[in-house]
Design a protein that fits this description.
This protein is an alpha+beta fold and 123 residues long. The protein has a single domain (27-122), classed as Beta Barrel (OB fold (Dihydrolipoamide Acetyltransferase, E2P)). Helix content is 23%, strand content 37%. It has helices at residues 2-23, 70-75; strands spanning 35-46, 53-58, 61-66, 88-95, 103-111, 114-117. Strands 1-2-3-5-4 form a five-stranded mixed barrel. The termini are far apart.
């Protein structure tokens, strides 16, 4: 009985330790080659969560645009009010490796002649 309880506690601790890493949007699941997408903003920038996000309609799909963490995205000038819904934007970054997932990990967003470089060290 004691062994079973210790095993359950150890498994719980391991699962809790792994959760933050699993929630983080790293670059590992994205293609190595650069990818660019032009489309219309469906959902403006959200600074909630571990990474800022927005949604863009392009190529007949709604794309999940994963930006930098909120503080870094804001430092690049990309706030919740910076780009309105309906605006045409160009997203530059790395597409998800799974071609069935319409997601792009973004390095920069261009709108109305202005570039928001959320990962300047990757450009």
């Amino acid at each position: 009985m004691q062994t079973r309880r210790l095993m359950a506690m150890a498994m719980s601790a391991l699962m809790l330790a792994v959760l933050p890493a699993a929630a983080h949007h790293g670059w590992g699941g994205n293609a190595q080659n650069e990818f660019e997408l032009t489309g219309t903003v469906e959902q403006v920038v959200s600074l909630a969560g571990p990474h800022a996000t927005m949604k863009v309609r392009a190529q007949g799909q709604i794309w999940e645009v994963t930006l930098a963490p909120p503080a870094r995205t804001q430092a690049a000038g990309l706030t919740e009010k910076a780009i309105p819904a309906g605006a045409q934007v160009t997203i530059h970054g790395h597409r998800n490796s799974d071609p069935k997932r319409f997601e792009i990990k973004t390095e920069r967003v261009t709108w109305n002649g202005k570039t928001f470089n959320v990962y300047p060290d990757r450009s």
